[in-house]
Amino acid sequence: MSHEDCIFCKIIQGDIPSAKVYEDDNVYAFLDISQVTKGHTLVIPKEHTKNIYETSPEVAKELFARIPFIANAIKKSYNPLGMNVLNNNESAAEQSVFHLHLHLIPRYGEGDGYS
Ligand code: 5GP
Ligand code: ZN
Questions:
Q1: Which terminus, N or C, of the chain has the lesser number of Cβ atoms within 10 Å?
Q2: Which letter, b or e, does each residue of 68-83 get, where b requires 16 or more Cβ atoms within 10 Å of its Cβ?
Q3: Is residue 113, in this structure, part of any structural domain at all?
Q4: Number of domains in the chain
Q5: Does ligand 1 lie within 6 Å of residue 55's CB atom?
Q6: What is the CA radius of gyration of the chain?
Q7: HIT domain: which residues (predicted)?
């Protein structure tokens, strides 16, 4: 179920353009508009859920189950040395979009601009 004022729901619906990395019935992945490193990707459930506190085990399971495939696709495309998986919940933890998302942040060694 989509949420009226949610930008990520609008991205899933195609109302806001995005650079798609992966899509299936339950999950959508796209490049973050603000690339902290090359290939920085957001992975989101299609079902709107605010953050990890409000996410059902079923939605969490579907989301996390896709991470290995998506991470390997990014690895193949960008050839990073490593990758961070990050999730922010609530403003105090720097969540700025209130639709659950995982950041996949490829790392390229010292000087990749991310710390
Ligand atoms: P948060 O700070 O909530 O963990 O991450 C939200 C992320 O969403 C930020 O890294 C921000 O750059 C990204 N973002 C916000 N609006 C858009 C958008 O319209 N398109 C895309 N591709 N990314 C967005
Ligand atoms: Zn949403």
A1: C
A2: eebbebbbeeeebeeb
A3: no
A4: 1
A5: no
A6: 14
A7: 7-115
**Positive/negative CA dihedral, 88, 28, 54, 56:** negative
Per-residue pLDDT of the chain (115 residues; tens, 9 = 90+): 568 899 999 999 999 999 999 999 999 999 999 999 999 999 999 999 999 999 999 999 999 999 999 999 999 999 999 999 999 999 999 999 999 999 999 999 999 989 8
In a domain, 66, yes or no: yes
Domain that holds residue 78: 7-107
Q: Which of 40, 48, 99, 101 is catalytic?
A: 101
Q: What is the ipTM of this complex?
A: 0.99
What is the CATH number for 39?
Answer: 3.30.428.10
Entry pTM: 0.97
User: Is residue 20 one of the residues assigned to a domain?
Assistant: yes
Domain contains 58: yes
- Cβ < 5 A residues, ion ligand 2: 3, 6, 8-9, 48, 99
The Å distance, Cα 113 to ligand 2 centre, comes to: 29
Tokens of 91: 């403003």
